[in-house]
Design a protein that fits this description.
The chain is mainly α. It contains ten helices and no strands.
Length: 271
């Protein structure tokens, strides 16, 4: 039994590494206006096509010493990190399926785990696109929003979710988006970008009420803590901005995992 689980976890991890390698392509090419499916991977500096032996997730980075084989330019550390995190995400998804994916009615016994795995990869991609480039691509945000809406509609039409909860999720998305738009207008785009406004709509629909409120609160708390650390360490000065998208993603993850418990704890303190 244990041996089977280990083999399964290793297999899923390796598959996750491969998906993470593809996510690196998606992130880079989306930002630069290219199609992720257009040709083989190339070095972003010398533009030479990367050989298959040099494109093995994690291992090629180590064997090459973190440099391009041809031009010797350093390869960004984010490439192996994204691959590793995606592999870990896939293993967590596989081992934690029995805990988080409990719908047993067809087709949700298969659809629900696949949906949340897709959401996880999209959130990971959005985290790094904003972290690295300060951009939340419309295509990634749009796919997340459409998937969340379609999933909510399907849950409602099959009777698993009630219509009032569906409309609460829509209202949560609109409310979060309007809130971020107000901050965008008040700060003239310096405190909040339009990408954050659009992402607010997507994750509001995804989370529903009251998890959206928990996610927003967690995003601002984590953003404030990191901001204070950056100022204290001298890495940023007053007036400099930092991408807020990564904190929205972190807040979304916190809310997905512990949003219900945190909300119940908070309401218990009030009442």
């Amino acid at each position: 039994m244990i041996g089977t689980m280990i083999i399964g976890a290793v297999s899923v991890f390796l598959f996750g590494l491969a998906i993470g390698s593809f996510l690196n392509v998606v992130i880079y090419r989306t930002i630069h206006g290219e199609s992720p499916f257009e040709g083989r991977s190339r070095c972003p500096h010398c533009k030479k096509t990367i050989r298959a032996i040099d494109n093995i997730p994690l291992l090629s980075f180590l064997f090459l010493g973190g440099r391009c084989r041809y031009c010797k330019t350093k390869i960004s550390w984010t490439y192996p990190v994204i691959e590793l995190l995606t592999g870990v995400l896939f293993v967590w998804w596989w081992l934690g399926g029995s805990l988080f994916f409990k719908l047993t009615a067809a087709p949700f016994v298969y659809l629900q785990p696949l949906f949340w795995l897709t959401v996880g990869t999209l959130l990971l991609s959005l985290f790094f696109t904003d972290f690295l480039y300060g951009i939340l691509p419309d295509i990634l945000v749009g796919v997340l929003g459409v998937l969340a809406l379609a999933y909510r509609v399907l849950l409602t039409y099959t009777g698993i979710m009630q219509w009032p909860d569906f409309w609460y999720s829509i209202a949560s998305g609109i409310g979060a988006s309007l809130f971020f738009f107000a901050l965008h207008a008040l700060t003239r785009g310096r405190g909040m970008g339009m990408g954050d406004v659009k992402l607010g709509l997507a994750f509001g629909i995804l989370l529903g009420w009251p998890r959206t409120l928990v996610a927003v609160f967690a995003s601002f708390v984590s953003g404030a803590l990191v901001g204070v650390w950056l100022l204290a360490s001298g890495r940023r000065q007053f007036g400099q901005t930092i991408p807020f998208g990564p904190f929205l993603v972190l807040g979304t993850m916190v809310s997905l995992l512990w949003g219900g418990a945190l909300w119940s704890w908070y309401m218990g303190m009030i009442f």
